Please model this.
Amino acid sequence: MDLLARREHSRGELMQKLGEKVEDRDLLAMVLDALQQQGLLSDSRFAENYIRYRRRKGFGPLRIKMELKTKHVSDEIIEQLLSSGYNDWLDSLTMVWQKKFGPDKPSDYTIKAKQMRFLQNKGFSPEQINLFFRVTSNENKC
Model:
C-alpha cells in the first residue's frame, strides 16, 4: 500500500519490487489480485498516467511503448492507449521539434537528417517524421 500511495504502479512492477522482499510469491499474487479487485491497482490506469507524463516530456509513441513493456504492461493495453489520436502524436512531434530547433525549417539536407534522427531517438516513427517534414515543406511553398 505504501508503494501505491506514492504513485501508480503496474502489477508487474509491484511483483518485481515486492518479489525480492517476499518469500511466498503465491501470497503476493493473491494480495495483488485483491488490490486489483478493489480498484487500487490498475495496469490501464498506470499506463494512461505514464503515457501522459512521458508525452509531456517530449517522448513519442515508440519510446513510450518500449518503456511500458519494461514495466510489464500488457501489449493489449499499450496498443489500445497509444493507437488513439495519430494527429495528436503529430502535434506532439511538432511541439518537440519547435522547442528544440525553433520555427525555421531546415534548408540543408544534413541539418534535416540530424533533426530526423533526433525525433527518432525521442520515439517518433519514421512515418510520423516524414509526414511532419512533408507537411511543413508544403506549408513553406505556399
Remarks:
- Residues 2-82 form one domain.
